[in-house]
């Protein structure tokens, strides 16, 4: 089969190799990949490990080709999407890929493979941040009137793929009036405002390009008579220092979860009265992260959560209550992965996911073993 490995960075270079079709393990599924999409981590990993030459793709949409001996939920030919286990072989930049059963879900008939490929990593990153860390109530929960309500939620970077999913999931929770979630405050750039507005999920949208985020958020909270105790920073890169707009908005005992930055790695004095930590989506597989970002007990819980949440998201997609992120399909399929990763590295992708159709890749047949 045809497979793409990311060979180097600055500039991004990839190499096409001929590989055998992988065989799934007992609790794995082998997918014939129809479409896949890129994530920033696909260039960030080679930046950290320059000697590594590997298939970095993780977002998969396609049909089931083979299942492991202990897989019960999926059958050959099923339309599925899923999240490949990061940093392991058999990623999505190939004709066939492997993913754990726990992070595989049926793709509803109203969702195309291209749209489906934009969902797995970004949606689960947002879900783990909101529900596992910020303790946002699950959409189907019911709270008694006497129980404390959740209150305000700030989502910074709401126009990004991860931030957009956080906003859409938070909307589903807010629609359950018993949970007392709100207001939902979305922060995004000028170019993303129309996209964020289209979700009809945020009570307030703040344009960070205006340079008045802290003042604007404080005015909103004062108007609503609320304190802000929960925030998710979906950007949080050391180059942007978005936390400088988040911390001043929080109450004295607030909680911030950050998507890209590990607070322990930044030369920043974090507020001692706040819980500040990074979101690691690697727990979604239900197994201990080999890099130690989540302990075994937390990873098991994240795995149980992701199994349920992926199926909940699939149901909401089928019902039209949530929609995938906007995307653009690059020409020439997997041959364009290098182009896509270079665009991401250069910061030229905004408000869209980059998608590749495997069938559009030139000369596939030359790589068939």
From TrEMBL:
Similarity remark: Belongs to the zinc-containing alcohol dehydrogenase family.
InterPro entries, per database record: ADH-like_N, ER, GroES-like_sf, NAD(P)-bd_dom_sf, Trans-enoyl_RdTase-like
SUPFAM superfamilies the record matches: GroES-like, NAD(P)-binding Rossmann-fold domains
Oxidoreductase is among the record's keywords: yes
Protein keywords: Oxidoreductase
SMART domains on file: PKS_ER (SM00829)
Upper classification of the organism: Eukaryota, Fungi, Dikarya, Ascomycota, Pezizomycotina
Alphabetized PANTHER family for the sequence: HYPOTHETICAL OXIDOREDUCTASE (EUROFUNG), OXIDOREDUCTASE, PUTATIVE (AFU_ORTHOLOGUE AFUA_8G01420)-RELATED
UniProt name for this protein: Putative zinc binding dehydrogenase
């Amino acid at each position: 089969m045809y497979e793409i490995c990311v060979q180097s960075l600055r500039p991004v270079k990839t190499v096409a190799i001929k590989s055998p079709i992988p065989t799934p393990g007992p609790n794995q599924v082998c997918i014939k990949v129809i479409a896949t999409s890129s994530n920033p981590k696909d260039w960030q990993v080679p930046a950290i490990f320059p000697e590594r030459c590997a298939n970095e793709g993780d977002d998969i949409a396609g049909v089931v080709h083979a299942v492991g001996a202990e897989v019960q939920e999926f059958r050959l030919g099923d339309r599925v999407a899923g999240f490949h286990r990061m940093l392991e072989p058999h990623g999505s930049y190939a004709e066939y890929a492997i993913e754990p059963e726990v992070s595989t879900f049926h793709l509803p008939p109203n969702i195309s493979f291209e749209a489906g490929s934009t969902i797995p990593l970004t949606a689960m990153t947002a879900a783990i941040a909101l529900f596992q860390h910020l303790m946002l109530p699950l959409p189907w929960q019911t709270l008694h009137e006497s129980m404390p309500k959740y209150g305000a939620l700030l989502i910074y970077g709401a126009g990004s793929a991860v931030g957009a999913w956080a906003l859409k999931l938070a909307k589903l929770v807010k629609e359950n009036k018993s949970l007392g979630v709100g207001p939902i405050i979305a922060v995004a750039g000028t170019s993303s405002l129309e996209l964020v507005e289209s979700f009809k999920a945020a009570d307030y949208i703040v344009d960070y390009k205006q340079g008045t985020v802290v003042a604007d958020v404080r005015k909103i909270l004062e108007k609503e008579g609320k304190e802000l105790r929960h925030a998710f920073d979906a950007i949080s890169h050391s180059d942007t220092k978005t936390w400088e707009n988040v911390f001043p908005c929080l109450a004295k005992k607030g909680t911030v979860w950050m998507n890209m930055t590990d607070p322990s790695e930044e030369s920043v004095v974090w507020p001692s009265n706040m819980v500040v930590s990074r979101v690691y989506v690697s727990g979604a597989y239900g197994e201990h992260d080999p890099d130690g970002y989540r302990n075994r007990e937390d990873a098991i819980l994240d795995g149980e959560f992701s199994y349920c949440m992926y199926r909940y998201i699939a149901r909401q997609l089928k019902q039209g209550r949530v929609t995938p992120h906007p995307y653009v399909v690059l020409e020439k399929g997997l041959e364009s992965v290098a182009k896509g990763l270079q665009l991401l590295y250069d910061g030229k992708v905004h408000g869209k996911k980059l998608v590749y159709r495997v069938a559009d890749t030139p000369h596939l047949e030359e790589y068939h073993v």
